[in-house]
Amino acid sequence: MTILEKAPAKINLSLDVLRKREDGYHDVEMIMTSIDLADRIELERLGENRIEISLESRYVPNDERNLAYKAADVFKEAYGITEGVHIRIDKNIPVSAGLGGGSTDAAAVLRGLNRLWSLGIPLDELAELGSTIGADVAFCVYGNTAIARGYGEKIESLPSPPSCWIILAKPDIGVSTKTIFGQIDVERLFHPQTSEILKALSERNFDKLCRNIGNSLEDITFSLHPEVMRIKEAMVHAGAAGVLMSGSGPTVYGLVEQQSKATRIYNGMRGFCDEVYLVRLLG
C-alpha cells in the first residue's frame, strides 16, 4: 500500500518579529498562504521497524537531519507505532529558499502516516505534534491561508487572498534562518502593518494587500546578500503589484493580477536568476 501526499510551498504575506523570549526563540506574527508549487511525498510500509528516506537531491539529507525523517520519528513515538516506513520525496520546491520546503514535507509525512496506519488523528493534533519539529510545520499541516503566532505554533485560519499569479525568483544561494534570526535587534526592525493585511484579506482587496505586505527580516537578509535586494528591485521595476521576500529568503515573489503581465515579468526575471517560477495561489 502506497500513500501519496502533496506538500505545497508557502509564501509569507507578512513576517513580523515581535520580541525575543527567555528561551531564546522569538515571538512572531506571520501571515502565510499556500502556493501551487509542491513536493510529492510517497509513503510505504516496511517490514522492519525503521525509517528510510529516498530522494534525488544533493542538497537535502536522507537521514535524521531531514525534517520528514523527524516527522516520522516523532509520529511513531507519539502513537506507539512499531512498523517501519519508506518515504520517497520528489523535490520541486527549492531548498533553503524561504518557501517552507522542509516544513511542508514534514507536514505531509504527518498527514500521510495518519492515513497509512488508519489512526484518524485530527489535524489540530497533528499540527501540535508538527510544532515540535519546526516553526512552520503546524501551518503546513493545515495549508491554505492563516496567521501564525507564538514561535509559529498558534494557527488561525484566514480568508484566501484575492486570486492572482505569483512570480517566484530565487538566486543561487541558500540562506540560513538561524543566521538571520541571530542578527535580529527587535528595537530596530521594520514591523509590517499586519492589521491592514488582515483587512485586505477580509475585503479581498488586491491593491490594499499589495501595499501592506511586509517582512521584518528583509533588511537583514539584504545586508548579508545584496543580490536578494537587487532581485526585489528588478521585480518592482518590472511592474509586479506587490513584491516581498518570503521567510528569511532568499526567494522574492511578486503578485500580479493579469496572466499576460505575469508571464512577461516571469520571462524578464529569468535573466536575473536561474530559478524562476510562475504559479497560482492555493490558499
Characterization of this structure:
- With 283 residues, this protein is an alpha+beta fold.
- Helix content is 34%, strand content 30%.
- The strands form two sheets. Strands 1, 2, 3, 4, 5, 6 and 8 form a seven-stranded mixed β-sheet that branches.
- The radius of gyration is 19 Å and the shape is globular.
Summarize the SSE layout with pairings:
Blueprint: E1 2-20, E2 26-46, E3 51-55, H1 67-79, E4 84-90, H2 101-116, H3 123-130, H4 137-142, E5 145-149, E6 154-157, E7 165-170, H5 177-182, H6 194-203, H7 206-212, E8 214-215, H8 218-224, H9 226-238, E9 242-245, E10 252-256, H10 259-269, E11 275-280
Parallel strand pairs: 1-8, 3-4
Antiparallel strand pairs: 1-2, 2-4, 2-5, 5-6, 7-10, 7-11, 9-10
Overall shape:
globular
Order of helices and strands: EEEHEHHHEEEHHHEHHEEHE
Number of distinct helices: 10
Structural class: alpha+beta
- Residue share in helices? 25-40%
Count of DSSP strands: 11
* Largest β-sheet summary: 7 strands, mixed
End-to-end distance: 30 Å
Q: Please mark out the parts with pLDDT under 50 across 5 or more consecutive residues, or reply none.
A: none
Radius of gyration: 19 Å
State mean pLDDT (0 to 100 scale): 96
Binned strand content: 25-35%
